[in-house]
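Homework help board

Subject: predicted structure for assignment chain

Our instructor gave us this sequence and asked us to write out the predicted structure in token form, then describe one feature. I got the tokens but I'm not sure how to describe them. Can anyone check?
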Amino acid sequence: MHKHLWAILASGLLLGPAVAADEAVTVKLKKPAKGEAVTDTRSEEVDVTQSVDGMAAPTLEVRTKQEYTDAVLEGDGKAKPTKVERTYKTLDQTAGEKVDHGLAGKTVLIEKAKGKEKFAFSVGGKPVGESAAKLLDQEFNQEVDTEELMLPTKPVKVGDTWEVPAKAVDKMFGEEFVVDSKKVKATGKLVKVYDKNKAKYGVIEYTVELPVASIGGQVDATPGSQLKVSMSVDGCIDGTVYESSSAGKLDGEVKAKVMGKDVTVKISGTLKSKSEPAKK
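My token output:
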């Protein structure tokens, strides 16, 4: 959010009155329904530094920026839509070198056909390429609905905290870092509730600690290896409007013994996203 706009919001000129701290609210997220269109913008900047016996290799800079609009063809507004046309305005990714998923400027049909367990992805009637399929698979074919699992299971007041189940976050880094699910610590906290345009909005802060058990499932990590994620989400919490923005920070260090050598991987980065109804 732009600084000048944030100053206006903070002053209360655009926001309605804050909800009383002792009023419990049920947090619900809006899912896009048939006939609706929504725009998402996401960016990630992550630096990965690896050292062997104290000798550091050049830092790997991973940068991802994507902006797309989803037009919902099938969906009831309560669960994830089962048929979507996604048009990518931007999809840029580098991991040392540019990664081309072949989706920028393209419209992808994302569909979970009746009787099928997973979503399929196609452009112009043909399946997307391998890297594009992997990217979309990570978003649409998760074993659990991460967004829903992150929410409190009962009404909460401003200042209340709740535990987030490990299965909501333990696959956050895919197969690159295997997490010890039994030792995961993840919490959410309702920081603020306010009214905006006749809907209820709120700010939720998440803190996640992920003890790493292994690198790639092949090399055991040294005890104490851990990744931390902190995230602040500001958006509609009464299930009526698909709108939110988030900002997060990633930090961690993973150590291991590889062929008798001490290997250390340090990770740091920032994550940002914004979701809103598409402009007509």
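Reply (TA_rk): Your tokens look well-formed. For the description, you could write something like this. The chain has three helices and 16 strands. That's the kind of observation they're looking for.
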